[in-house]
Automatic annotation (TrEMBL):
Protein name: Phenol hydrolase beta subunit
Short name of any one Pfam family annotated for the protein: Phenol_Hydrox
GO molecular function: hydrolase activity; oxidoreductase activity, acting on paired donors, with incorporation or reduction of molecular oxygen, NAD(P)H as one donor, and incorporation of one atom of oxygen
N-terminal signal peptide: none
Keywords for the protein's UniProt record, in alphabetical order: Hydrolase, Monooxygenase, Oxidoreductase
Record-linked InterPro entries: Ferritin-like_SF (IPR009078), MP_mOase_hydro (IPR012078), Phenol_Hydrox (IPR003430), RNR-like (IPR012348)
SUPFAM superfamilies associated with the record: Ferritin-like
Length: 331
């Protein structure tokens, strides 16, 4: 007796959702495409927003930037909810190990008083800057248009809350978990003259209505100047004088910035290349916020890095200029 086993292939009627097939053709879509493209609600809105009756609940006119296809602003990291949460869970585990390592060996608590005061003055107040960045990216997520931008913005907003908590943990490592460093850092943020310029610009962003301008000012200009100044130059300054203890707890922040830059640069470069009007508009925003934030960071650079402060800020600004040139904007 012989048994003949046959295999049959069932051809699916379609390979993906209709809206993705219309955009990419009838072929299997990636999870990022399924979770991103053409998800934005466009029709059947139940009411006009009472606080902005001239516009729809979701409205492309809430920014002066114009795009033929807002989904051109895709995230090169291909982050959607699943991939984002898995990536951040792994990074959080690595970060927790770094913090536990520093806590068990009291790497920051055993630093000289001068070094601990410098950390409380220069780094711990940035937890308030990160909270401001959370608010600004929440604005982008709330009023932006197109899931490609808004989902990346809300993930960025959550990241900024995490960074604020991380800076708070650094303060607790410095003061032996008493919380005194956090209170002192808050006083620096609201009272110390050197911090008031940055605090003012963060609050100016709170009342900037164009969500794309907020995105450019916060993630490209402000972060582009501040992160190198504090997490590279100040870190190197401290390592030269007190060893690499601080660097062990700043590694996560620098890695996060390296990753986030990919999304920010792709978004800005694509929007600037869309039209000359977009490019000119964004150039004006960059010029305004770059000038304001350089002036705001100048006293902080001097207060935290002394004679090296002006040079460090100039180096950060030069790096930002080179980055702007790569994005199609004037350096």
């Amino acid at each position: 007796m012989t048994v003949e086993i046959r295999t049959q292939t069932v051809k699916p009627v379609r390979q993906t959702f209709g809206h993705l097939a219309r955009r990419f053709g009838d072929k299997p879509a990636t999870r990022y495409q399924e979770a991103t493209y053409d998800i934005q609600s466009e029709v059947n809105h139940h009411y006009k927003p009472l606080w902005d009756p001239e516009r729809d609940l979701y409205d492309k006119r809430r920014t002066a930037v114009e795009m033929a296809d807002w989904y051109a602003l895709k995230d090169p990291r291909q982050y959607y909810y699943g991939s984002y949460t898995m990536a951040r869970a792994k990074q959080q585990e690595a970060l927790d190990r770094q913090m536990e390592f520093a806590d068990r060996r009291a790497l920051l608590a055993q630093l000289p008083a001068e070094a601990r005061e410098a950390i409380v003055f220069a780094l711990v107040p940035l937890r308030h800057y990160e909270w401001g960045a959370n608010t600004n990216l929440s604005h982008v997520a709330a009023y932006g248009w197109g899931t490609a931008v808004t989902q990346a913005a809300v993930m960025g907003a959550m990241d900024r809350l995490g960074l604020a908590q991380h800076l708070s943990r650094i303060g607790l490592l410095v003061d032996g978990n008493t919380g005194a460093a956090l209170d002192q850092a808050h006083r620096h943020w609201v009272e110390h003259p050197a911090w008031q310029g940055l605090r003012r610009e963060v609050e100016n962003l709170f009342v900037t209505r164009d969500w794309f301008e907020v995105l450019v000012a916060q993630t490209l200009v402000a972060d582009g100047l501040l992160y190198p100044l504090f997490f590279q130059h100040f870190d190197a300054h401290m390592a030269q004088r007190h060893g690499p203890a601080l660097s062990t707890v700043l590694d996560h922040i620098n890695r996060w910035q390296d990753e986030t830059v990919k999304w920010v640069d792709a978004t800005v470069k694509t929007a600037a290349a869309e039209s000359e009007a977009n490019r000119a508009l964004m150039q004006g925003w960059v010029n305004h916020w770059r000038s304001a934030l350089k002036a705001a960071l100048s006293p902080l650079a001097e207060a935290t890095l002394g004679e090296q402060g002006a040079g460090a800020l100039a180096a950060a600004d030069a790096a930002l200029g080179a980055r702007l040139a790569r994005l199609g904007l004037a350096a």
